[in-house]
């Protein structure tokens, strides 16, 4: 039975592709409303597959996948999905790009203008409202994509290595903005990465995926940092270094289990 606070739930999941064996097997996972959950694991272990299940783009071979207590049948319109890809429309201004999900949902024009204005302000893009994506820096484009993913306030935001292409400084800035923005909005996030430091900075809870194929959730870490975090200071503390070490151990265990089982995915 789904708890009142649970928004997404996977029970005893098995999934694979075509004639191939399962890539994930026996996966149990829940996300509570308002939680920032990160799936951390080596390349090819099945992290994106879990996001695609939440988005209703894939069906499991076995097990249950539920959103707000209901089975997911078909595309899940309650989720926002931000990938590594730059999917801004190059011929539309920043504000038109950000408003796109609202226009598609036939939201009245005045309401669109109000919400676009709010997100331009939150993500510090007001000065760029009338620019085209080609006139923006990489970090500004990521912020515009983040605004577009959040503007219709999806109940669950799926993020698949959204900052992988940014340089270290810009990525750090995005971590600060993402956490502040989603916590202010009470947004629930399922985030995918193979970057330990990124996972340690932004998450409330981290699940290590791996140990396959078929893989699963091999470890869980509830991070000891509060909801309000000063990421500029936190990343240089001993406590942060300890968390990074723990996550690193978890990842190494997942890889050695994969090797011992004859699996492994070459990353
Ligand atoms: N549509 C598909 N058809 C066939 N195989 C697929 C499909 N999608 C994923 N796979 C395979 O399933 C496995 C898991 O892929 P997935 O993209 O979920 O991994 P990942 O952990 O997100 O990897 P990465 O970190 O490299 O993005 C891989 O071996 C991949 O080749």
From TrEMBL:
Keyword annotations from UniProtKB, A to Z: ATP-binding, Nucleotide-binding, Transport
SUPFAM superfamilies assigned? P-loop containing nucleoside triphosphate hydrolases (SSF52540)
**PROSITE patterns, alphabetized:** ABC_TRANSPORTER_1 (PS00211), ABC_TRANSPORTER_2 (PS50893)
Report a single Gene Ontology molecular function: ATP binding
Q: Which InterPro entries match?
A: AAA+_ATPase, ABC_transporter-like_ATP-bd, ABC_transporter-like_CS, ABC_transporter_ATP-bind, P-loop_NTPase
UniProt entry tagged with the keyword DNA repair: no
Q: Which is a Pfam family this sequence falls into?
A: ABC_tran
Could you name the domain of life of the organism this protein comes from? Bacteria
* Domain ABC transporter, chain residue ranges per copy: 8-236
Entry-linked PANTHER family: ALIPHATIC SULFONATES IMPORT ATP-BINDING PROTEIN SSUB, TAURINE IMPORT ATP-BINDING PROTEIN-RELATED
User: What is the name of the protein in this document?
Assistant: ABC transporter ATP-binding protein
Q: Which organism is it from?
A: Dactylosporangium maewongense
